[in-house]
Design a protein that fits this description.
There is one protein chain. The protein is α/β, with parallel strands linked by helices. It is built from six helices and nine strands. It has helices at residues 45-53, 85-91, 100-113, 129-142, 159-176, 210-222; strands at residues 4-16, 19-30, 34-39, 60-65, 69-72, 147-151, 179-183, 195-200, 203-208. The strands form two sheets. A six-stranded mixed sheet has the order 5-6-7-3-8-9, sandwiched between helices. Helix 2 packs parallel to helix 4 and helix 4 runs parallel beside helix 5. It starts with a strand and ends with a helix.
């Protein structure tokens, strides 16, 4: 296994001491690979991603993650704040104090990476759901993020857009040596990843090859 880009050890988190969400959660995602995170509702998947990106603080345990992390919400309307595609990506670069030429270059390169270059001036409201998710991903690429965390990014998309997005992320991981951790409920999306992690009740219960995780999920469903 390659060196980990994401490593979590004995992570614990809960809103109260009597209602733990993550319990001694441990996992590892290799650098430069596309992994998926599965589990039933309430298993702690989304909470884990928010801890990784720093939106929440763990009660105990350790998180080791590359510094530059991009987060893609389930609903892109929660993170796209500017009126046009190009402006939204540029907005994410404000803290880097780049020159105007550098900003334009970063924006253009990011849009080209997600195949949205012709839509640079397009109003955000005029985009499809899949295009909005690509803009969110482009924002992370423009910031030179090394890790992408995606919280059920296809949940609100139609089947064709779902396929387009998962293939786009797979390509980005391979071509740009990114690391991606993608939360999903869709077993068909496992065809596109390098590895998968299964969570139950705030703990990782399996981690490995996608087919093995898929078989375990099917066997578990058949036992009920």
């Amino acid at each position: 296994m390659a060196d980990p880009a994401i490593q979590v050890q004995q992570l614990c988190f809960g809103w109260t001491e009597t209602q733990p969400i993550l319990r001694q959660c441990t996992l590892s995602v290799p650098k430069g690979e596309f992994w998926m995170l599965l589990g039933t509702n309430g298993s702690g998947k989304s909470t884990l991603l928010r801890l990784l990106v720093g939106l929440l603080t763990p009660q105990s345990g350790q998180i080791h993650c590359f510094e530059r992390v991009g987060f893609v919400f389930q609903n892109p309307d929660h993170q796209l704040v500017m009126p046009t595609v190009g402006a939204d990506i540029a907005f994410g670069l404000v803290e880097e104090h780049l020159t105007l030429v550098e900003v334009r270059k970063r924006v253009d390169e990011a849009l080209a990476a997600v195949n949205l270059a012709p839509l640079k001036q397009r109003p955000i409201y005029a985009l499809s759901g899949g295009q909005k998710q690509r803009v969110a991903i482009a924002g992370a690429i423009a910031r030179h993020c090394e890790v992408l965390l995606l919280d059920e990014p296809t949940a609100l998309l139609d089947p064709e857009s779902q396929l387009d997005l998962v293939q786009a992320v797979q390509t980005l991981v391979r071509e740009r040596q990114l690391t991606a951790l993608w939360v999903t409920h869709r077993l068909n999306e496992l065809e596109y990843c390098d590895g998968a992690i299964l969570m139950e009740k705030g703990q990782v219960v399996a981690q490995g090859k996608p087919l093995e995780i898929c078989d375990r999920l099917v066997q578990t469903a058949d036992s009920y």
